[in-house]
Amino acid sequence: MLIKEPEINYEETLMINDKNFNTANVCIVTGSGTGIGRAVAIAAAKNRLMTIGLDINETEGRKTQKIARDSGGQMVFIKTDLCNDEDIQTAVQEAGKLGQIKYLANVAGIQHINSVEDFPMEKYDLMQRLMLRAPFLLSKLVIPYMKKSPDRIGVIANMASIHGHICTMNKPAYNITKFGLRALSQSISAEGNGEIRSFTVSTGFVRTPLAEKQIEAQAEQRGISKEDVIKNVMMGKSRIKEMMTPMEAANLIIFGFSHHSRYLVGGDLLFDGGCVLTY
């Protein structure tokens, strides 16, 4: 394995004193079984939010739940197929029973490496459903809950990417969904009257299973070694030659949820080591 997901280090968690960060308020996190989603769930729980983790991988999801609880936080895992509307609706209903839904982090995602002309449509449809339609539906369902909170404030985070700013070869479906998530955040914010707001987080490569699993396909498609994929493709344009940790990405979402980010309305937190804006 060329990339290994690091163990969660509780000391790396950004802790924020926010009046809405308490166990009466619910934070829903998708993709909570591994990677950034796991880190976001743990960080939210450590910040005193009642955290609801959604993932199709029950074994890893329950592992995240245990880590969050062992850290002193409160988390409930609900096995959820994000490509199934009934599963999503049930998960939101159950979350609503555990407190006031105020935060949603749409993190779940997959990757498939292929050119437009060779891209399998069944994989394209799956990625659209998981990475764009599910965040839209979850947002649609949680906004009414948020509006019923005493201060009518709610925040929705969407995990985008540098691929929501630039397009690299052989990632058409991924590129499209990440641009789409930025549009979703801006659309929610346009309708939210400054109370319901949304934002995106755009990072470069993060040390997660999603990044690790694409190395072999990238090497085959580009005709280079796996080592060259990491050095020249993944980190080639970054001024910082080290991948972010999942918790570093999660901390950006926690900051975006907090009162410190009340002017982050439809905006994007671009933390990419300079990939997009420096040449």
How would you describe this structure in keywords?
279 residues; 7-stranded parallel sheet; 7 strands
Explain what the structure shows.
By secondary structure, the chain is an alpha/beta fold. It has helices spanning 35-46, 58-70, 85-96, 121-147, 172-191, 209-213, 215-222, 226-234, 246-257, and strands at residues 25-30, 50-55, 74-79, 100-106, 154-159, 196-203, 268-271. The protein has a 7-stranded parallel beta sheet with strand order 3-2-1-4-5-6-7, with helices on both faces.
In short:
This protein is 42% helix and 15% strand. It contains 9 helices and 7 strands; from the N terminus they run E-H-E-H-E-H-E-H-E-H-E-H-H-H-H-E.
CATH class (first level) name = Alpha Beta
Biggest beta sheet attributes: 7 strands, parallel
CATH superfamily: NAD(P)-binding Rossmann-like Domain
Strand order of the biggest β-sheet: 3-2-1-4-5-6-7
CATH architect. name: 3-Layer(aba) Sandwich
Helical element count? 9
Which word captures the global form?
A: globular
Q: From N to C, what is the helix and strand string?
A: EHEHEHEHEHEHHHHE
End-to-end C-alpha gap: 30 Å
Helix content: 40-55%
- Regions with pLDDT < 50 over 5+ consecutive residues? none
CATH fold-level assignment: Rossmann fold
Q: From the helix content, strand content and strand pairing, which structural class follows?
A: alpha/beta
Strand content: 15-25%
Mean pLDDT: 92
Estimated radius of gyration: 18 Å
User: How many separate domains make up the residues?
Assistant: 1
